[in-house]
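Example 3.2
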Amino acid sequence: MTNKPERDAYHHGDLREALIRAADTILAERGVEGFSLREAARRAHVSPAAPAHHFGSSAGLLTEVAILGFQELARHIDIERTAGNPTARLKRQGVGYVRFALAFPGRFHLMFRHELLLSDDARLAAASEQAKTPIAQTIAALRGLPEDAELDTGARAMLLAAWSAVHGFAHLALDGKFSGLTPEAGSAHLLEELLPEMLETLWPEPGS
């Protein structure tokens, strides 16, 4: 009697998780442009048809990785509300945002490539909202609003400015653009010195 193919050893949930892990690894190694369903299947030791069977399409599998990204981002920026004043908290969240991007570059680049994802996926929308909430609450506190209040026009503009600053910094860091500006462009220097100095310029402590 011949042995069954290795893929038959997977339970449904195990195979699903194996494919998500494989896709996540490919993105970390090769970036979004280097991803393919066939390569994900090869790394999970299953047939080329298996990813489409479980996720429907490349977008379905990539959406699962994007959800992981937003969940991890939320953990990086979820600072205790009692940890300093709102300005200090916002700066710590900014560092957490960039720290996430440097630690998970594949996920970071994927999360904002909406054309590659299932944009109407409810779980993706919920994970994205979860990642926005900690900074939105900090912005509300800075504006003197209840932390769970709907942001007014000024608060939304502040949120956009904060996101633009750290998102742009993260992209520049990942692209190696700081190497010409500072002799020490490693992650530790960027996170512990350059980024905090930039954030202090943008959001000085009250009374400073």
